[in-house]
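quick one, 417 residues, struct below
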Amino acid sequence: MTDRIAVHADALVRRRAAWSLERAFYTDPEIHALDLEIVHARHWLFAGHVAELPEPGSWFLFELGAESLIITRDGDGAIHALFNVCRHRGSRICLEPTGTARRLVCPYHQWVFAADGALLGARDMPEGFDKAAFGLHRARVAVCEGLIFVRFAEEGPSFAPIAADLTRHLAPHRLAEARIAHRTRHVVRANWKLIAENFRECYHCPGTHPEYCATVFGGAVKKSPEAERRRLDFLAESLARWRGQGLSTETVGFKPDTWHHVGRGILAEGWRSWTLDGEPAAPLMGDLPDRGTGLLGAVMYPSFWLEGGCDYLTTTRVLPVSATSSSVEITWYVAPGAVAGRDYDVGRLTEVWGNTAEQDMTLAANNQAGVDSSRYEPGPYANEEAHDLEHFLAWYQRQWTDVAAQRRGAGECRARG
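---
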């Protein structure tokens, strides 16, 4: 398999800059399986929100490929990510997507585990059996502003820089206290990279996203020089006001060696919420000073992005299912005391991002259908999409070349030994 990694890594190195990938990277089951190992298992993935663990003993499952994690809250409030594999003979322990239990009990032979994974009971084991040595295996877990992230692999990038940037921007929203107002789940017939690439560019926006373009100042439509000057003046005015209100206005942009972005931008002038008419959709979140705080956005490779304004936030997670299909989960969050039907209407809450995401999923599926053709070949990016797409694909390429180099080096060491 190491040789196959090297073969595919070499193909990525030969990729022409600012051009799309070769067909196999969107269609090949072998590359899909290696993406799970090389990209997803080694990086931080969004698992869920603390509201999904309302009390000690609460748990939910996070699954990727053959792996299943039990995300739990213990009696002290700590959150754990435990591999859903009994240490006796390997059975799955939790079989439902969510639940609450004082103990995790394997349905096969009733081994009993605590919420932190410690083995509490294993009947009829031989003398000398050490329960402490048979706790559930753990994945890495990080919680930031109520958002739960996990990493399957022991080794990988630190979450600390992302935590600092997310906290600085998200703290006034008090997302950790928010309630989940709505969630949608979709299976899209598109490789996860096609969905990610679609999100990373807005070259397609004017022709496909009327809701988005109508609600963000300037949208993605090219404006006259005078309109662009007005947009820049409005942005400068907004940034100055936000700084005066104590909000973070520092945009954390993508750099050659980074994999996250956070920033605050402007809605259409006069808009007080990210809705079609600009009118509020829900109560203000957290400690935000007023309804003129714009649009907050964050992206984390490989599979997470966040968007939202003063009265709701959304998270979007994309995970690979097969070489040509992906799961997409979108969640909307509102202030903790907001009540559906009284304080917010789900239709208004979801009218911009819900429609935009549906349009994007259709675009990605159409893209996959074309890539499946024998006549597909990589194509060049337009000027306005090249920077962001090239950053993503260069990052993706590095994941492969780094692992190929590590394994090549390990093989050489074994040969010399």
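The chain has two domains: 1-41+181-417, 45-144.
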